[in-house]
Structures are given as structure tokens and as C-alpha cells.
Write a structure and sequence with these properties.
The protein has 310 residues and is of the alpha/beta class. The chain contains twelve helices and 15 strands. This is Carbohydrate kinase. Keywords: ATP-binding, Kinase, Nucleotide-binding, Transferase.
Length: 310
């Protein structure tokens, strides 16, 4: 599923956003706690795929924070100094229904100091609550707009309406960050909440017309839509028995970014010259990553070997 070439030696990813503890409640079972948060999941997914990755986040110097730090270390992901604070680690309660779909309630605060970012940084990704919730969102936007030329910028809104604020405010924040990004991914649920009544195809066209080089929409069991330039590709989901959907979109995101990096598509995206012929390869790798994740419990993204064997 992945190209037969290694990652370049100088590649490094930086992910900015929330890391928290997911408290998962399944019907008829005791609650289970594990590390979560969309940006944290993307960082972990990149690390599992062999991409040297640093996470910029806000966790407490407490038991929950140590769970997150240990989890990240198992994938080789570094925490940027200053990410561990004196406050408590945030949490989210994910309640699963009979199909394995999750609804979330959050206990979260988000504030970051101005960042001294490591160099080199090939890829910078952000998303979800950490990209929208103030006051930390201002630091995230500043990091994006001040990124050195040649840094691939990626954004996943991963909308959480219960904590992000009004739709109008969220739309403005999403579009502001997207204007700085080269790659934007959202789910069909994100798209429907942000732009009610607008088709996925029209949303994709609008974002690409606004300057996004690669726009992707995940559609759950219906697969994904990708658009670059004047070309749109629709791909079917990989057949899989779903255990739960926790982390599925984040695994799609890390798989997509990995496919860009390993397939040497970075320069084409930076120049907004991605070929239509590349969309299928990138999308298939991302969908394979998501399929592996939903086939097992929790946000458990694939290793490089698993993705290659898919």
C-alpha cells in the first residue's frame, strides 16, 4: 500500500494541539481510560509510521499526564519542552453506541505560551480543539503564519461543537487556518456542521479555489473524496469489520501525511501543483490506515509494516 522508498533523513513533523485522557464507556462494560486527543493521535500515528515527530501540547504533571507521555514514547514521539504544566491533564468521555460510534464530552482547558519551534520542521500539523479554543488557538495560528517557507502545513478541523463555540466563530477560525494550510482534511460530519446544505463536492471546490493544495473529506463507510487543482477523486472505504470508530479520522490524517512524505509529493503540494494521478495513491494509503484502526479497539493506528501489508 505504501511506496517502496524510505523517508528522507531530514524529515521531521511538528504537531500542535490537545492531548488528553479518553474515558471510553461501552454498553455493558466498565469505563476504560487511555491517551487521546485528535492532534495527539495524529502525532502518535506519524510516530508509528516512522516519522520523527514532536508534539506541542498542554498536559499536567500528574498521573494522566504520565499516561500520555508514556504512550507517546512508545511511538518515539517527543514532547516539546514546556508542554508539561502545573495544571491538571484534560479529559474527554467517549460514549459508544451499539455500532461503535462515539459521542464526546470534554473537560479541557487550552493555553500555550509563545512557541520556540524546533528546526528543521518539514511538516506542521494542527487540528480540532487546540486549533480553535482560545487563548491557545492564537498561538497555533501564529505558529502557522510564521512557519518558514517550505514547511508543509496541514489542518484537520475535527469539529467538536459542544466546546468550540458558535458556528459562525468556528467557521471563521477554520477558514483562517485553512488559508495558511496546504493540506486540509475534514469529515463529512464536520462539513455538514460547518456548511449546512452545501455539498461535499462544492465545499472541496471552494477550499481548493481559496488556495488549499489538497483537500480531503472522509465519509465513514462511504470512503473519501479528495480534490487538488481541477481534479476530484472519490474512493471507496476498505472492507472491514468495525470494532469502534475512535481515532479513525486521525489515522486517515496520519496515513495521508505519511503517504505525502514517503511518496515525495511534498514539493508538488507546496507549489500547489499536485497531479490528479497522485490523489488515488494518497487516498488509498490514508483509507488503509483508517481501516486498520477501526478494526480494533481505541485509537490504535498502524505501524509501517501493517500499512504496507494491507
Amino acid at each position: 500500500m505504501t511506496p517502496d522508498r524510505p523517508l528522507a533523513a531530514n524529515i521531521r513533523a511538528l504537531v500542535i494541539g490537545e492531548a488528553l485522557i479518553d474515558i471510553v464507556r461501552r454498553p455493558g462494560a466498565e469505563p476504560v481510560s487511555h491517551a487521546g486527543g485528535s492532534p495527539m493521535n495524529v502525532a502518535y500515528g506519524l510516530g508509528r509510521l516512522g516519522v520523527p515527530t514532536t508534539l506541542v501540547t498542554q498536559i499536567g504533571e500528574d498521573a494522566f499526564g504520565e499516561i500520555i507521555a508514556t504512550h507517546l514514547r512508545t511511538a518515539g514521539v517527543d514532547l516539546l519542552p514546556g508542554s508539561v504544566t502545573a495544571g491538571a491533564t484534560s479529559s474527554a468521555t467517549a460514549t459508544l453506541d451499539a455500532t461503535g460510534a462515539a459521542n464526546y464530552d470534554f473537560d479541557l482547558s487550552w493555553e500555550l505560551p509563545e512557541l520556540a519551534l524546533p528546526e528543521p520542521c518539514t511538516l506542521m500539523h494542527t487540528g480540532s480543539i487546540g486549533a480553535i479554543l482560545e487563548p491557545g488557538a492564537r498561538t497555533v495560528l501564529s505558529a502557522f503564519t510564521a512557519a518558514p517557507a517550505g514547511t508543509l502545513l496541514s489542518f484537520d478541523p475535527n469539529v467538536r461543537p459542544g466546546i468550540m463555540g458558535s458556528r459562525d466563530d468556528v467557521v471563521r477560525a477554520v477558514e483562517r487556518l485553512s488559508a495558511a494550510a496546504h493540506v486540509v482534511k475534514m469529515s463529512d460530519e464536520d462539513a455538514a456542521w460547518l456548511y449546512p446544505g452545501r455539498s461535499l463536492d462544492q465545499i472541496a471546490r471552494d477550499y481548493v479555489a481559496a488556495g488549499v493544495a489538497l483537500f480531503a473529506v472522509t465519509r465513514g463507510g462511504e470512503g473519501a473524496l479528495l480534490r487538488a487543482g481541477g481534479a476530484t477523486t472519490e474512493l471507496a472505504a476498505h472492507p472491514v469489520t468495525v470494532v469502534d470508530t475512535i481515532g479513525a479520522g486521525d489515522s486517515f490524517m496520519s496515513g495521508l501525511l505519511y503517504a505525502i512524505l514517503v511518496g515525495e509529493a511534498t514539493e508538488a503540494i507546496l507549489q500547489n501543483e499536485l497531479a490528479a494521478s497522485d490523489l488515488g495513491r494518497l487516498g488509498q494509503t490514508a483509507l488503509a490506515s483508517a481501516a486498520i484502526t477501526v478494526s480494533r479497539a481505541g485509537a490504535n493506528p498502524p505501524t509501517t509494516v501493517e500499512l504496507t501489508d494491507r
